[in-house]
Amino acid sequence: MANELYPEGINCRIISWYRQEDRSFPLKAKTSASYITSSLAKTEAVESGFDEAILLNSQGKVADSSAANIFIVRNKKLITPGFDRDILEEITRDSIFKIARNLGIETQERPIDKSELYIADEVFLCGTALKIAHVKKIENYHLPNHQPIGKLLKEKLTAIVERIDPKYQDWISIINIS
After folding, report:
1. Considering the domain boundaries, does residue 115 fall inside one?
2. Which of 32, 38, 43 is nearest to 69 (CA)?
3. Which of 15, 32, 39, 98 is deepest in the core (most CB within 10 A)?
4. Domain-embedded: residue 87
5. 107 burial class (0-12, 13-18, 19+ CB within 10 angstroms)?
6. Is-contact 133 57, C-beta < 8 A?
7. Domain span holding position 145
8. Is 114 a catalytic residue?
């Protein structure tokens, strides 16, 4: 997917819908039914003037967006909710973790409080179609424009996907479409 979504950044709203729990619904199965909440959340966000929704889990902690995982950076540490937080599993999330570790960026999977979104040094979303998009605004709070860790990870991921970085060539499978 060549085109970059949200090149200027993304505006997010913390939504009234909650991410469903894995103990009551098989989130890791990626069935079409698991995207109902995501559709409702995205609709609520867009209808209220935002680009994307941020969902909390049933414990009131940050889960993910309607169609992407979420990362924050605090004190140069990359933080994201773990799979025990009822998030969707994504290959892009896993790739970002591996890239960050290879670059020497400290990473952590842990619960994220809603209030941490407002005091984070950086916030970005990642997913297959989205790749990496920096969050410029959550609700009415503007995040810093300078997001060096997210920018570095985005550049590295782009170099991998475009087959520029030889270190990660085993990650790429070429599919010929006739």
Report:
1. yes
2. 38
3. 15
4. yes
5. middle
6. no
7. 10-168
8. no
Q: Is 129 inside any structural domain?
A: yes
CATH number at residue 137: 3.20.10.10
Helix (H) or strand (E) holding 105: none
Classify residue 87 by its DSSP letter: P
Q: What is the pLDDT along the chain (178 residues), one digit of tens a residue?
A: 455 677 789 999 999 987 766 656 656 556 666 678 889 999 999 999 999 999 999 899 999 999 899 999 999 999 999 887 777 778 899 999 999 999 999 999 999 999 999 999 999 999 988 889 999 999 999 999 899 999 999 999 999 988 888 899 899 888 888 7
**What's the token pair of residue 63?**
């889960």
Task: Give the tokens for residue 49.
Answer: 């003037």
Dihedrals φ, ψ of 80, to 5°? -150, 150
Within a domain: residue 85?
Answer: yes
Number of domains in the chain: 1
pLDDT tens-digit series, residues 43-82 = 999 999 999 999 999 899 999 999 899 999 999 999 999 8
